[in-house]
Amino acid sequence: QKEVEQDPGPLSVPEGAIVSLNCTYSNSAFQYFMWYRQYSRKGPELLMYTYSSGNKEDGRFTAQVDKSSKYISLFIRDSQPSDSATYLCAMRKHGGSQGNLIFGKGTKLSVKP
Amino acid sequence: DAGVIQSPRHEVTEMGQEVTLRCKPISGHNSLFWYRQTMMRGLELLIYFNNNVPIDDSGMPEDRFSAKMPNASFSTLKIQPSEPRDSAVYFCASSLLAGARNEQFFGPGTRLTVL
Is B101 in CB contact (< 8 Å) with chain A? Predict the structure, then answer.
């Protein structure tokens, strides 16, 4: 079993839809959870950052962490065509070096006008 | 701020040739990371440096791969000899070691094709 699992999609939704992206993980030592957004032919950029459990909201984006289920989610409200990208989850242990950042393979999202 | 700079952006070479990828991190950042991204394996960490010192190279696939960071503003990833299975997008990222979020800033990547 891989440490981080993420459905690669692709996921296609109409503009304005609520999008739910998810990752599961197997290592209970993970404490820091991130979502990166990667546009085509670009490098990933940090979108959301969460420590331990709970929710974090930033504009149209909400990140959720459920450590009991080893499950993290990213919700996008009122999705826009500009949200079309690949979304990668990433996580690492507490006290772990930054180098120990484990990425999911990414989910490709397409928002149709 | 120019961000992380990588060169070349695209590289096409033949099997057996030496390939050198270059990276200039964001000024002031003291951690540098090399990643490889493929459809099959996703984004994988190859090696990272703190204050120009290699900390973990366990992700380097084979002895054919080597990385150096001679100073705080420059790093290279070399593949010698290259093989078709090395074809991938190679990303360099940098961050502040003491940053609260330790956010990694990625460069645009080098798309390598080995024929």
Answer: yes
